[in-house]
Design brief:
α4 packs parallel to α7. The chain has 2 domains: about 90 residues, Barwin-like endoglucanases; about 140 residues, no CATH class. The radius of gyration is 31 Å and the shape is elongated. By secondary structure, the protein is of the alpha+beta class. The chain has a 4-stranded mixed β-sheet. The termini are far apart. β2 and β3 form a beta hairpin. The longest helix has about 45 residues. It is built from 8 helices and 4 strands.
Length: about 270
């Protein structure tokens, strides 16, 4: 991508640092490449990369910036640097046009009119690309919902089984406590204290592990031409904690009624 005017490119393409979001300005010192491209070829700022043209001509150029980008790969170069490196006269073969809040029908009409001209070979709408990606992400949301439900059910099953095993192994102890005059609420607090503690520990460890797992999964899902923004919003942590607590409360309610039904005499007569 070689703009006719280095200052004009900012009207259609925002060149900015991935981490600091500081804007980049094209210069004659080197090129700016997109972040996914830099990752794939293992390039850093200050490195020298080799560019191969459609004529199989190779030139080595220094990287002076890595810009944020999510679809496809690009190398941004100033007109002066292009003429200096390749020794060719600059000529434009692509027009970047920004419309003014046009509707989809208006954009489609303009696209058809432009394609009908002999001077234009192809027309690509950014809105169409965005819509395609939005549809893809919406389909991915169904997978995420299934994973959340499965994780919630797994948490419920684990907590429920732990509570049942805990009660089953301590049935004589709990029966003795009830015989001694402990109220149902006191017996319930005595048993569920461990479940509550395990739930809290699980939430803390899960939030920490989930942060790194999110980066790993998104990195695995990415293809070479696409990059996902690896960000976890605070509300996601709130949802994760809330869902876990809801299932924990349900298990504790079931446990409460199970403890109330303990046969004190029968339990004390059972042989260990």
């Amino acid at each position: 991508m070689i703009p006719k005017d280095n200052q004009e490119i900012d009207k259609t393409i925002k060149l900015r640092d991935v981490k600091t979001e500081e804007p980049f300005t094209l210069s004659d010192e080197g090129v700016i490449i997109t972040d996914k491209l830099a990752e794939l070829i293992n390039a850093k700022i200050g490195d020298t990369i080799t560019i191969t043209t459609s004529d199989d001509e190779q030139k080595e150029i220094k990287v002076v910036g890595i810009t944020e980008n999510y679809i496809s790969h690009y190398v941004y170069m100033s007109k002066e640097l292009y003429q200096q490196v390749f020794g060719k006269e600059y000529s434009t073969n692509v027009l970047l046009i920004q419309d003014n809040n046009l509707s989809e029908d208006q954009e489609e009409t303009i696209m058809q009119e432009m394609v009908a001209k002999n001077e234009v070979s192809t027309v690509t709408l950014t809105a169409t690309t965005m819509k395609t990606l939005d549809d893809t992400m919406n389909s991915l949301n169904y997978v995420v919902v299934v994973l959340i439900i499965s994780a919630g059910l797994l948490a419920f099953v684990v907590l429920y089984n732990l509570s049942n095993i805990n009660i089953g192994e301590r049935i004589r102890e709990l029966a003795t406590i009830k015989v001694l005059g402990f109220y149902d609420r006191e017996v319930y607090d005595y048993v569920t204290r461990e479940t509550i503690l395990l739930t809290i520990i699980g939430i803390i460890l899960g939030l920490v592990a989930g942060y790194f797992l999110n980066f790993y999964i998104l990195g695995t899902c990415e293809i070479n031409m696409l990059r996902f923004e690896k960000v976890i919003h605070p509300i996601s942590y709130v949802y994760a904690v809330a869902i876990t607590l809801i299932f924990s409360i349900i298990v504790n309610l079931v446990t409460y009624f199970t403890l109330k039904k303990i046969d004190m005499i029968g339990s004390l007569k059972s042989v260990e």
